[in-house]
Amino acid sequence: MRVAIDTAKCQGHGQCVMTCPDVFSADEQGFAVVEQPEVPASLAEKVERAALRCPERAVRIER
Amino acid sequence: MSDREALNRAVSLAREFDNTTPEFLEHEFETYQALREALPIARSERRAAAGVGAAWVLTRYDDITEALTNAADFSNQTANYPVRPWIPQAVDPPAHTAYRRILNPWFTVDAMSKLEPHLEQYASELVQKMVAKPAFDFVADFADPFPTVIFCELIGFPLSDYAQIMDWKNMTMHAGDGHARGAALVRERGLKLGLAPNAAGGFSADDSMKIRVDVGREVYAYFAKLLGARRKEPRDDLITKLLGAEFEGKRKLTQEELEDTLFLLFMAGLDTVASVLGLIVRHFALDPEKRREFVALIEDPERVGAAVEELVRFHAIVTPPRRVTRDLAFHGTQLRSGDFVALPTPAANRDPAEFPNPDAIEYDRTPNRHLGFGLGPHRCLGIHLARREVRIALQVFHRALPDYRLDPARPPQLFGGMKGVASLPLLRA
Question: Helix, strand, or coil here: A5?
């Protein structure tokens, strides 16, 4: 699984950072950054939950 | 009810739609549901949102999210501002983006996480004092001072000015929404200005504006004084940081920009968390089962965050207005350039198309893309502070007092518009 942030959509709600801090962090403006684009299987469920929680639908999952 | 009857009912609900009164709250969600089902883009001839007259009222989640994220067609330049438009709330991109780039770093998850020990400590202090009293008012004793004092510390408003700041806030935000203190202060100010109240005890639209301008100028003068003091003697606060900020890295902010930004922070920061906390705890006082379910999970770090999000979904307070910038066919309705739309987030957050079983609180709800903090470029700047304040306030309060009920002798006082609770006397259960 790969994950990316659509930076045109992200507004810094921070839901992904709170849901899966191992994969997402916030830049100094508060927008999401992907720390680990290749998601290990152990974190796949959390990343899926992060995508479901993003109000701007800015978390993109590719399989 | 036939489709035709439902449509006729929705048309008459829409015509009379005014969510700025406390009476509206008695049938708030029935109204939104009737509109959403029969007339999802409805024309109101009255006050569809604070500061706006006739407007289109949107009630579907998808339509509201579309308007909130499309800043080109739905502009934030809407209201009659008492002095000047607020920064960044009343500014559209691209200038908006440049102002937000200045403010964002001071309100990030990391910056706000550092505040948590202080939030916990101050919340505990207030709660201990409150529950030691034989009878208390959750709003006056806790929900108002907690976020307000934290916010004054962050911005750099002297705490000795607390009462004055609350009065200014109540006159600016709660002149005509059923907030007793706001109405009394506005009336006093109107009489002082030589204006005559009407039969209902309020003022004409023109006179109300005169009062807002008078109060606004006073608040701006206060900001000018504080900005002057920080220029001479910098401190660790947002007023000092704003003085050092650069617009697009090119120039310092002008005196007007500094004041307009402080005014927005003052408006947005003083009321919202208090209102949401008041609505949640009033609900819990009336619904002991939901309260116990919440109290059972407040120590579970895996669940409490999602539970707070669900409570914010359920008790969203804001109806942002937008101004349509061009003639636009919008989901079957012809909008005209200059029309206003009202985007009630409480309605979006109860749309069954997005939230199954929308009128139930489900603490583990996933997904929960609620609009309680807004969406798009203007989404709440203080989101990470607000979330922490709501969670910590609810944890600290329920640890100290898990069982309580309304005081039958002193019922809660609600206000409409950007809705909330002005007074919430509670008794131990």
Answer: strand
> Predicted confidence band at A63 (pLDDT cuts at 50, 70, 90)?
confident
Please list, in sequence order, all residues whose beta carbon lies within 8 angstroms of the beta carbon of residue B187, skipping any fewer than 6 positions away.
B197, B201, B202, B203
Of A17, A26, A52, the CB nearest to B367: A52
| CATH code that applies to domain A2-62 | 3.30.70.20
| DSSP per-residue letters across B94-151 | THHHHHHHHHGGGGSHHHHHTTHHHHHHHHHHHHHHHHTSSSEEHIIIIITHHHHHHH
Quote the Cα angle for B208-B211-B215, to 5°: 140
CA-angle at B233, arms to B227 and B237, nearest 5°: 65
Task: Mention every residue, 6+ apart, whose C-beta is less than 8 A from residue B274.
Answer: B139, B143, B144, B146, B147, B148, B420
- What is the spatial distance between Cα B150 and Cα B17, in angstroms, rounded to a whole number? 36
What's the pTM value of the predicted model, to 2 decimals?
0.96
Residues B95-154 pLDDT 10s = 999 999 999 999 999 999 999 999 999 999 999 999 999 889 999 999 999 999 999 999
**Which CATH code fits B3-428?**
1.10.630.10
- Beta pairing class for B55-58 and B340-342: parallel
Q: Residue B390: name the closest of B271, B274, B219 by CA.
A: B274
Residue recorded with tokens 């529950």: B131
Q: Mean per-residue pLDDT for B51-66? A: 91
Predicted complex ipTM exceeds 0.90? yes
Residue B54 — pLDDT band, cuts 50, 70, 90? Answer: confident
Q: Residue ranges of the domains in chain A?
A: 2-62
3-state secondary structure of B415: strand
Contact B277, B394 (CB under 8 A): yes
Summarize the confidence of residues B21-47 as an average pLDDT.
93
Q: Which residues of chain B does A49 touch, with a Cβ-Cβ cutoff of 8 Å?
A: 366
Question: Which of A10, A13, A16 to mutate against chain B (most B CBs within 10 Å)?
Answer: A13
Residue B79, Cβ neighbours under 10 Å: how many? Answer: 17
Q: Give the CA-trace dihedral at B423, B219, B175, B77, to 10 degrees.
A: -120
The contact set of B with A (CB < 8 A) is 69, 101, 104-105, 107-110, 305, 366-371, 373, 375-377, 379, 383-384
Q: How far is CA B226 from CA B163, B181, B340, in A?
A: 17, 26, 36
User: What average pLDDT does range B320-347 have in this prediction?
Assistant: 96
